[in-house]
Amino acid sequence: MTRSILITGSSSGIGLAAARTLHTRGWRVFACVRRPEDRTRLEAEGLESGLLDMADTKSIETGLAEVLDRTGGTLDALFNNAGFGLPGLVEDLPTDALRETFETNVFGLHHLTRAVIPVMRAQGHGRIVQHSSGFGRHVMQWRGAYNASKHALEGLTDTLRLEMRGSGIHISTLNTGPVTSKFRVNSIAPFERWIDWENSVDPDRYRRGLLKHLYEDSGPAPFQREPDAVVRRLIHAIEHPNPRPRYHITPAVHFAEGLRRAFPQRIIDAVAARL
């Protein structure tokens, strides 16, 4: 029987690459997006798509219901890929902006995951893959909202993995480093909406650091990889009979993990403060 997977955040980048690759591997892929025009574009490409906004509970429920209606009530895998970043110093981060980040990156993801688990329990099997980040285990400045949301996701996912033991439902986490995508460009709108950097205690710090990185395409980051590097680990997580609990992806994440094991926190902080 054809296996089915729901992928969130499929309009571009890793989500789109995953949808295309799994479609060619014989999976029935539901490439879910927020905007109708993206759905039309993906369907014109030959992919099945659906509307699912992770910041909208009703949209999550409606989108999942449509997918289950098409599959006859089953779903073999869920790839929670959708998420966004809001750059800025923590002291300049409005609490409502932090709530908005968590709404998509944590609460919406959690709502969809809980809605899928009964389906997988009923069929006796399933794979849930949570797209975290290297920043789910490490931090860098300017990324407080994103770091916090991914740390929260790590806690939820690690606990869920323990609780699903013996259920036939396997839970995996992808810890991804720099990958070619629209992540930087997509973070400009929330930054302009929420961060009043010109009235920051040190606006020159933004001029020297974040603004250039945010608004100028300076080319690939060091050790940046293409989305296929993530898709290869996703394939292992959903197809291998014994998937790993966690996948470290890109050299940057492996380097950060090595620092964590080898050095005290003060040394790690000193390195991170220079990046």
Could you explain the architecture of this structure?
The chain has helices at residues 13-24, 36-44, 57-71, 95-123, 144-163, 183-186, 188-194, 203-208, 210-215, 228-239, 251-262, 265-273; strands spanning 4-7, 28-33, 48-51, 77-80, 126-131, 169-176, 246-249. The chain is globular. The model has no long low-confidence stretch (mean pLDDT 96). Helix content is 51%, strand content 13%. The chain has 275 residues and is of the alpha/beta class. Strand 4 (77-80), helix 4 and strand 5 form a beta-alpha-beta unit. 38% of the residues are buried. Helix 1 (13-24) crosses helix 10 (228-239), helix 3 (57-71) packs parallel to helix 4 and helix 4 packs parallel to helix 5 (144-163). The longest helix has 29 residues, at 95-123. It has a seven-stranded parallel sheet with strand order 3-2-1-4-5-6-7, sandwiched between helices.
Strands, total number:
7
Please state the overall shape, judged from the principal axes of the Cα atoms. Answer: globular
- Give start-end ranges of low-pLDDT stretches: none
Oligomeric form of this entry?
Answer: single chain
Look at the helices and sheets and give the structural class: alpha/beta
Q: Measure the end-to-end span.
A: 49 Å
Percent of residues in beta strands: 5-15%
- Count of separate DSSP helical elements: 12
Radius of gyration: 19 Å
Mean of all residue-level pLDDT scores: 96
